[in-house]
Amino acid sequence: MRVTLINPPRFLEFAPNLGLFYVAAVLEKAGHEVAIVDKPINSPVGKTWETFNATVKQTIDEVAKTKPELIGMTATCHTFYGIELLDLFKRILPGIKTVVGGPQITFIPDDVLSNYPSVDYVVRGEGEYTMLKLVKAIEENQDLGGINGLSHRRDGGVVNNPDAPFIENLDELPYPARHLVNLEQYPEDTRITLASSRGCPHHCIFCSSSQMWRRYRPRSVEKVLEELTFLKREYSPKRVNFVDDTFAVGRDRTINLCQGIRQNGLDLVWSAMTRVGLGRELLEEMYNAGCRVLYFGCESGDDSTLRTVTKGITTNQIESTVKMALEIGLQVTCSFVINLPFETPERARRTIVFAKKLKNMGALIQAHMLAAYPGTEIYNNLDKYNVRLKHQGIELWKVMSHPLYLEDRPPTPLVSNNLISEQELAKLWAEATSVFDYY
Ligand code: B12
Ligand code: SF4
């Protein structure tokens, strides 16, 4: 079958979409003809409606040229709006079927199938094998009831088939089909991404990782080294970016991986996202294996808030890990969230003061405003966390992914509580962004 996978245009253009690469690789291996359309918004004039609309138009033209029988679209909080394009594809490509998947859609299949008649199917969770089964079922006109992980319509209602089992052995997956896009269209240091694991063993209340991937599963060190060797040979990357939710989960495995990188003479520069509390030996191993950029999820500078969000770290641990990492020579970015549950203006200000301290030590600071993503403990228990959504259901997902919401400007808060007024929040955000490096 001819399948075209789309990553909708978006203003934040760091990297290609690894999830689509994996889905495409499994389909290609089974003999299907697959295209990926992912058009970065490259324009010297920057983020304007004109550049956005022009990129949407290029996407539509390019998809039409591939003459798909099935269109698959990925959707996260920031690309949800893309679903609306499917309506247009249904009109210009009569008879095509459409499927959506990704970390946002996974938790809201009913919302999506009830509100968007142009979406035929939703693939929930890990997408590779559910998609493969769907393609076969469409080709052979089989009943969809037996495809685990699929949501679809039947008799005017939505049917959510049981969840698909997660992929026990990630080593069995083919390499992501990076060859289906022109990687040169992405910035040189972010175009090569790689996942050495899926999931996360922790359960922070604002994050959907443990619901999305269900169990933390590492790939074998051998397979990761093999893929790194392939990436080096094929692309000579300026930098390889590990996109694991939490990179250094098993200490021994991480050390084995780092030593393997050195012993194989890979000589790569790489980045990773991880938690604090790694210890000097591990940080040094990582540095010696080529790690130069680390992102730490710090979340708050207030210990009681860190406990509320069940992050399992303390401000002392944050400070000592950041200090060690900087001493070793790593570039460190610390990410914080403003407006976390039960945060008062005083507690939020502690985050700003703490972040300033880390910045003075040499770290870069990134600020986020809390959003309640579907699949998170907060979203599932709004009252318990004293969180009110400012929009409901589809409206919330639309606002969250609205291209204007994603522009470089103070984000409109998507949730509120009765401990910080809107005016206070705006003031806090202004204070935060005056010292933070990215937001
Ligand atoms: C790399 C990354 C980024 C990169 C690049 C994104 C990209 N091009 O992929 C950048 C830095 C740009 C980024 C930014 C943000 N990100 Co981000 N990011 C990630 C990260 C770490 C890895 C993505 C990845 O490659 N995963 C591995 C692949 C294999 O998984 P996948 O993409 O989910 O695909 C699988 C399934 O979802 C499914 N699937 C996906 N699409 C499709 C389509 C079809 C048709 C089918 C059948 C299946 C399918 O099958 C795939 C294979 O199993 C994820 C966390 C994670 N580990 O997934 C967060 C994540 C996607 N990001 C997230 C968030 C919140 C953000 C930000 C909004 C953060 C912020 N507050 O600023 C920003 C966006 C900001 C903005 N202003 O636009 C959330 C999204 C939550 C949600 N509800 O959508 C995630 C899930 C992190 C989390 N656990 O909360 N991100
Ligand atoms: S925020 Fe990080 S540590 Fe917490 S559950 Fe998500 S991925 Fe794991």
Short description:
This protein is α/β, with parallel strands linked by helices and 439 residues long. The protein is built from 15 helices and 17 strands.
In words, what does this structure look like?
The protein has helices at 18-29, 49-65, 85-92, 109-115, 128-139, 209-213, 221-235, 251-263, 280-288, 303-308, 315-328, 345-361, 377-380, 393-401, 422-435; strands spanning 2-7, 33-38, 70-74, 97-101, 121-123, 150-154, 157-160, 193-194, 197-198, 217-218, 240-242, 270-274, 291-299, 331-338, 364-369, 388-389, 415-416. With 439 residues, the chain is α/β, with parallel strands linked by helices. The chain has two domains: 2-160, Rossmann fold (3-Layer(aba) Sandwich); 188-432, Aldolase class I (TIM Barrel). It has a seven-stranded mixed sheet, with helices on both faces. α4 links the parallel β4 (97-101) and β5. The longest helix is centred in the N-terminal third of the chain and has 17 residues, at 49-65. Iron/sulfur cluster binds at residues 200, 202-204, 207, 209-210, 245-246, 275, 297. Cobalamin binds at residues 5, 12, 14-15, 17-20, 22-23, 72-74, 76-78, 99-104, 123, 126-128, 131, 193, 195, 207-209, 243, 245, 368, 373, 406.
